[in-house]
Amino acid sequence: MDVRNAVYPGSARIAEFFGAPEDGPFVMVNLLKFKHKAEYADGSEPGLSGREAYQRYGVEVAKLVVALGGKIQYSGAVTGLLLGEVEELWDMVALAEYPSLAAFRDMATSPEMRAIEHHRSAGLAGQLNIRTKPRD
């Protein structure tokens, strides 16, 4: 299995993801890898770590998730690996529940998201977003 972190999806992946049939609530598994130092496009915050920059984003995006009827189910630091092998562990795992694909799309394309996105970009080296469907 080849695993590649990314900060933004390509247009084909976006079309595939949002072109999927609407099937109700889902949980997004976020595997996050932070930059050692935050990298803001305007050069601000030179003493901030990537984790600290992402935390600024995380506080605000959690409010957006709750406002659309979702919830952050779990968030925590990765502290070890029992099974399998990866070149480098992710730094954090977060589980976010969304009421629908449409709600997630609305949040992802909202002006509120655009207003905080720079913290995410400054802090993230890459991540995996895995959409999961709760069992009936």
Question: Outline of this structure?
Answer:
With 136 residues, this protein is α+β, with helices and mostly antiparallel strands. The protein has helices at 11-18, 50-67, 101-108, 111-123; strands spanning 26-34, 71-77, 92-98, 124-132.
Overview of the structural elements:
17% of the residues are buried. The protein has helices at 11-18, 50-67, 101-108, 111-123; strands at residues 26-34, 71-77, 92-98, 124-132. It has a single domain, classed as Alpha-Beta Plaits (2-Layer Sandwich), CATH 3.30.70.100. It contains four helices and four strands. The chain is α+β, with helices and mostly antiparallel strands. Strands 2-3-1-4 form a four-stranded antiparallel sheet.
Give the strand line-up of the largest sheet.
2-3-1-4
Shape: globular
The total count of strands amounts to 4
Oligomerization status of the protein chains: single chain
> Approximately how much helix is present in the residues?
25-40%
CA-CA gap between termini: 29 Å
SSE-based structural type: alpha+beta
> How many domain regions?
1
Q: What percentage of the residues does DSSP assign to strands (E)?
A: 15-25%
Q: What is the H/E order? A: HEHEEHHE
Total of helices: 4
Question: How does CATH name the architecture?
Answer: 2-Layer Sandwich
Which residue ranges are poorly predicted, with pLDDT under 50 across at least 5 consecutive positions? none
The CATH first-level class comes to Alpha Beta
Summarize the main sheet.
4 strands, antiparallel
Alpha carbon gyration radius: 15 Å
